[in-house]
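Researcher: Structure prediction, please.
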Amino acid sequence: MSEEREALTMDTFTQGLWKDNPVFVMMLGLCPALAVTNTAANALAMGLATTFVLICSGLLVSLLRKVIPKQVRIASYIIIIATFVTMADYGIKAISLDLYKALGAFIQLIVVNCIILGRAEAYASKNTPLRAVVNGTGMGLGFTIALLSMGIIREVLGSGTLFGAQVMPDRFQPWSIFVLPPGGFFVLAGWLMLFSWLRQRNTKQEVA
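Model: Predicted structure follows.
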């Protein structure tokens, strides 16, 4: 029984990393994915903030799932999510004011991120606190990896730097379009094509 529960928990954790990646598979949270990934640091900060909110809100929703009336569950979930978003907002502001300004309103907009509310309604409210935390962690890391994958490419090609450090030779001419809004669409499209190709290849291998 313990081995079955362990395997199920691992599947719950890895679901958000690959099979149901929030950005590259479910196409959720695209606004921050496009807006704040002009640098790797911004992408990492947004991903970690979202992961924090996912874990904490999922845990609290799961703990209160038998107490919250069904009639007001969505409003209750939003209040819980907004509480942890406020904590993340003040935390980033205290750590780095420059980073806080770079992320702008997208920290506060985590409240309306479909990933957060979707996990609360579809998963945390129907499962135990442990499973809710594991699932939230996997989804959060999947979201962070997706944002960081875009942020690294956009910063390296658009500025020649990575986390602010010069990584390209002096003769490299930055492709400024990658740090502009259109660059986000180009990089996202590339990752979506790669994910689609990998999933199709895996499906063909399973059928064969």
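Model: Residues 129-159 form the longest helix (31 residues).
Researcher: Thanks, that helps.
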